[in-house]
Design goal:
Length: 182
C-alpha cells in the first residue's frame, strides 16, 4: 500500500501553489471537461480577479470552465488558500473554534466552510456494498422489560397527553407519603 502524499503547509500559503495543488488532485491524468469529460481542452487565459486561476475551453462541447468549476470550492468570497488551510486543519481534527482562531475568521463562517467541505467529501465517497459475513461489534438491542416488549411500546394517542398530570401527582404522592424515620 502506497503512503499518502504529505502536504507541505508552508507551500499552501501562496495562491498559485494552492491552485496548482487543486489542479494536481482534481486532474491527476490531465485536465478534463466537467460537462462532457473530454480531454480535448485548451487553456483560455486566466481569471480577471485571481490571476492564478486558470480558465479552460473544451474543444468537444465548446464549454468554458476553470480550476474550481463544479467543486465545493467554487463561488465563495474566501480565497482558495483559506479553503485549503481549513481542509488541512480539518484533517488535523481541529474543532471549528480552533480553525476560526487559526484562520482569523468568525465561527459561523468556519462552520459553513467545514459543512460544505464535508458534504463535498461525502459526495465523493464511493457507495459501500457489504458481502459475505459481516461482523458487528457492541450492539445494544432493546428487547423490552423482562421479555415484555409491550411494556416498552409508546403509549401515544389522543388521551396520552392528559395522563402526564396523573403520573406527576402519583410520583409526588409517592415522594411525600413515605413515613418519616425521625
Amino acid at each position: 500500500m502506497a503512503a499518502p502524499d504529505l502536504v507541505n503547509l508552508s507551500g499552501l500559503m501562496d495562491d498559485a501553489k494552492c491552485f496548482a495543488f487543486v489542479r494536481q488532485h482534481r486532474w491527476p491524468d490531465g485536465v478534463r471537461c466537467p460537462a462532457c469529460d473530454s480531454g480535448a481542452v485548451v487553456r483560455d487565459g486566466c481569471d480577471d480577479t485571481q490571476s492564478c486561476r486558470q480558465r479552460y475551453r473544451c474543444k468537444a462541447c465548446a464549454g468554458r470552465f476553470d480550476d474550481l468549476t463544479e467543486t465545493v470550492l467554487a463561488g465563495h468570497h474566501q480565497p482558495l488558500r483559506v479553503w485549503v488551510l481549513c481542509l488541512y486543519f480539518m484533517g488535523l481534527n481541529l474543532s471549528n473554534q480552533q480553525i476560526s482562531r487559526e484562520l482569523g475568521l468568525c465561527r459561523s463562517d468556519v462552520q459553513a466552510m467545514t459543512e460544505q467541505l464535508r458534504c463535498g467529501l461525502a459526495a465523493k465517497t464511493p457507495e459501500v456494498h457489504l458481502q459475505g459475513e459481516v461482523e458487528i461489534d457492541e450492539v445494544y438491542v432493546v428487547a423490552g422489560h423482562k421479555g415484555q416488549p409491550a411494556a416498552v411500546a409508546k403509549q401515544g394517542g389522543p388521551g396520552a397527553a392528559a395522563g402526564w398530570q396523573a403520573r406527576r401527582a402519583a410520583a409526588r404522592w409517592r415522594r411525600t407519603s413515605r413515613p418519616s424515620l425521625a
